[in-house]
Amino acid sequence: MPVAFFTYNGSYQSGVQNLSPFEGALVRTTSAISGFQIPVNTIIGFAGGRIREGKTAPESYFNNDSDWRLKLNLASDGFKFGLSGIGMNPDADESTDRYNIWTPPHFLDYLEANFDVPDADGPITQSIVPPNSSFTWDLEINTSLKKTTFITWNKELIHDATGHLFLEDLRTGRVVNMKTNSSLEISDPDETKLQVYYAQVIPKELKAKMVILGNNYPNPFTDNTTIPFDIVGDRDTYQTILSVYNSQGQLVTTLVEEELTVGHYELNWSGSDQAGKPLPNGLYFYQLKFGNKVSPMKKIVKQY
To answer: What percent of the chain has pLDDT above 90?
Structure first.
């Protein structure tokens, strides 16, 4: 990574050919250079306009499981960060090299993703590593924005990869299959720690996390509560059942009993039984089943 060039106009971008009026740029070098030239063309009829010549930096691509890059896009409240990414390359090093992208400094409001890379002399927002049969990236989202943050990627690009790719929110325990999902929503993004797992064979400890039943909110509740859950796996759809039981283990209502596509769901429950009759205050439990997987029961409290 001898020289990095990013344009800046509220947020950073790489591979941009046009430098608009009043738009700045950042150049960073990790070694001594004798000079740095940016060829420009004058825009006729517009004094001071400039166009930066050169090729656009590659976005996401997939040649094979040993040579690929997946761009990770961050967005929150109209603010975007598009420099982050992961991948593998036969010429990459274990530590910092020309394939990694250094995280530029932020100004005022900021949104960025940083990887833990050995021997890096600063935060790294793109981590490209040598080919591995399994690898884990440690990723942290840093932002001054107190809004929901979305991480998105192109799932179609890695659909034919033989390896599996999963993204886990370490705070909530939520696991997303990146080959069948294209986004992760983070409701409380401040210093969120994530891990991205690549593996030819899914580890047993990761399989145990693949049935994800979130904590309902609010809890305790009076009129309504929301139950979040994820359907993940190698198939496109699963027969899914979400049930609620009373403290004696008796089924009081089934909230879902249908074929669902893989993805994230949030279901509202009003505290009523199957016939729509309000249930008495007390302790209840809910459980998710899909395919041959069964989640542990979780507690839910109804009160006036």
So the answer is: 39
Closest to 201 (Cα-Cα) out of 158, 159, 163 = 163
| Residue 1 CB coordination number (10 Å) | 18
| Identity of the amino acid at 76 | S
Query: CA–CA distance from 44 to each of 21, 49, 191 (Å)?
Result: 14, 8, 46
Instruction: Please report the pLDDT score of residue 128 as a whole number.
Output: 94
- Quote the pLDDT of residue 33: 65
Nearest residue to 99 via CA among 57, 136, 134: 57
CA dihedral 156, 183, 55, 30 (to 10 degrees): -130
Highest average pLDDT, of 58-67, 70-79, 187-196, 212-221, comes from 70-79
User: What is the phi/psi pair of residue 242, to 5°?
Assistant: -120, 115
DSSP at 204: H
| 152, 118 contact by CB (below 8 A) | no
Residue 1, both tokens = 């990574």
Cβ neighbours of residue 119 under 8 Å, at least 6 residues apart? Answer: 95, 96
**pLDDT for 47:** 32
The per-residue pLDDT of the chain, averaged, comes to 81
Is residue 172 classed exposed, middle or buried when 0-12, 13-18 and 19+ CB atoms within 10 A define those classes?
middle
**Strand, helix or coil at 99?**
coil
Long-range contacts of 218-223 (CB under 8 A, 24+ apart): 219/299, 219/300, 219/301, 220/301, 220/302, 220/303, 221/271, 221/300, 221/301, 221/302, 221/303, 222/271, 222/302, 222/303, 222/304, 223/270, 223/271
How many Å apart are CA 301 and CA 222, to the nearest integer? Answer: 9
Distance of CA 282 to the CA centre of its chain: 37
Tokens of 79: 């603010």
CA angle 159, 128, 184 (to 5 degrees): 50
What is this structure's pTM? 0.62
pLDDT band per the 50, 70, 90 thresholds, residue 96: confident
CB 112 within 8 A of CB 77: no
